[in-house]
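Write out this protein's structure.
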Amino acid sequence: MLHFLLRAAFAAFGLAIAARLVDGISYDVPLTLALAALLLGVVNALLRPLLVVLTLPLTVLSFGLFLLVINAGMILLVSRILPGFHVAGFTPALLAAIITGVTSWAAHMLLGDLRRLGAGKG
């Protein structure tokens, strides 16, 4: 559970960076941003695996770049579900997917390092 919450915190950080850097992404209050990150985590856990399998040929043909389209779609879906989190269209969602992807990658690297350090103790 702690791992999920840490990943959600990094997702919120990535969405906050995207909202600052990308025109067309905004949120009303910081709580909305936190809820968007949590909802994005849930949507990614439930819906994204199915979409990845269904679009596997496109993903292979695009050398994996189609995964960015799926991630952008997940961000757009969250913006449609959650009032107060606004994404103006596909291009801002794609840029947000890139930004949140980079922050998620950094979180994975950091959390992996923390897990290895914790496993060495005991």
